[in-house]
Amino acid sequence: MGLPPIGDLHLCNDVSQAQLLDLLFEPSPAIHETLIHVIRTAEYLSYPELIDACHIQLLSLAAAGATGAMTHPDATLLAILGSHPRLGAKKVDSAQSAAEQANLQGEGQELGVLNAEYEAKFPGLRYVVFVNGRGRPEIMQDMRDRIARGDYSKEIDAALQAMCDIAKDRAAKLDAEE
């Protein structure tokens, strides 16, 4: 399944725009609620340009909820960040996420422990990373480093950046299928 022409995207109905967001990001009503208007309100020349506009919107949502140490982010932001499956999860709804995480299979127990440690350190967040072909040891070390850093605000920024990097990669792959 390829992507619709970028020039026509703002003219598509809400259902089509939501389906596109599901392909680029993850299926999530919070993503739809936050990003459909980004698609609808402008014409874009490329999918990376659209994803950059989505990133700006997501960062503005994070900034609007920023209070002190950012320990109580907006519920919509948490729903967006929680739309990505946990690394190494046995059941992954998104075909794209399942393919992207294929090289992480076989470390379920250790990834489960790291996921639990991460989520205890950063309540309400889920570890999101652009795997980009990296193997288990490198990803698990990144996860440990981010847990050790312990900066909630930086985690939100890193997760949003990863979501948009993943979306750009997906767009490039889906566009190549046309």
Structural write-up:
The protein has 178 residues and is mainly α. The chain has one domain: UraD-like (Orthogonal Bundle). Helices cover 60% and strands 0% of the residues. It has 8 helices and no strands. Helix 2 packs across helix 3 (47-64), helix 2 crosses helix 4 (75-81) and helix 6 runs parallel beside helix 7 (136-149). The model has no long low-confidence stretch (mean pLDDT 85). Pfam families: OHCU_decarbox. Keywords: Purine metabolism. This is Oxo-4-hydroxy-4-carboxy-5-ureidoimidazoline decarboxylase domain-containing protein. Residues 16-171 form the Oxo-4-hydroxy-4-carboxy-5-ureidoimidazoline decarboxylase domain. InterPro entries: OHCU_decarboxylase, OHCU_decarboxylase_sf.
